Amino acid sequence: MTHTSIGFIGGGNMAGSLIGGLIADGWPTDKIRVSDPDNTRREHLSSHFSIQTSDDNIDILNSSDVLVLAVKPQVMAKITQALASSIQQTKPLIISIAAGINLTDLSRWLGDYKNLIRTMPNTPAMVQSGATALFADKSVDQSDRDLAETIMRAVGLTLWVDTEDQIDAVTAVSGSGPAYFFYIMEAMEKAGVDMGLSAKNARLLTIQTAFGAAKMALESKDSPGQLRQKVTSPGGTTERALSIMEDKQLQQIFNEALNGARQRSHELARILGQQT
Asked: In percent, how much of the chain has pLDDT > 70?
C-alpha cells in the first residue's frame, strides 16, 4: 500500500498536515506529489517534506493512483471540470477533503465518475489529532476504502458513516466542534481572570484541564456522563457549578447550536452544488 502514488490538488494547511502524517507513517516521499498555484507554498512543501510539487494539476493527476482534492469548496467545480477528461482516462481513486461538496455534484463535475470518497476532517488534524468521517460511493471497492482510511488515519481517528446525510451531523459535531471547545476555554479563562487569576495562569489551568479531561474520556470505559458523576461530590463546588449550568439549560443550548450547524452544512452543500 505504501507504494501507491498520492497526488494532492491544493497544498494548503490540511494537505500539508496529511502529507506530514503520511511521511511520519513511512510513506515514501517520492510517492507524494502536490500541485498548488502559489509558488511560495510549493517551495515550502518541497523544502519541508522533500516532495515533488507543480503548478500543473494535470501533471500531478497523471502520476497519481490516488488524487486528494484539497482545494477550497468555492473553486471545486472549476478545478474538477478541468480534470474530468483526464480522470476518465487514468481512473484514480479520488478523495475529497473539501467541506460541503456532495458526491453527486462531484461526480457530475467529473463526467459521472464514481470512484469517489468524501471525507470530513477537522482542524486538529493539523497536529495529528484529528477526527475524520468518510463516506464512499457504493461502487468503491473494499481495497480503495481501506486505502482511503489509511491515508486519513495519518492525521488521527477515522470512522465511516452509513449515509452521506450523516456528514452534515459530523460537520456539526466534530468539523465545527473544535471551535465550541475553544469558546468554552475562552469563557473559563475570562472567568478565572475575573476571579483574580493572572491571564497566564488562567490560560494554563484551562488548557491543561481541557487536555486532562479529554485524555480521561479517551482512556476510560466510562461515558462522559459517568465521568462527570464521579467527579461531582454531593454538596460540593462542582455540583454547584453544574447546577447553575443546568438552570441555564446548557444542554438545550448545545442541542440547538449543533442542529443549527447541521442545517447550515446542508444549506451550504446545496449552494456549492449549484456551481457550474
From this structure: 99
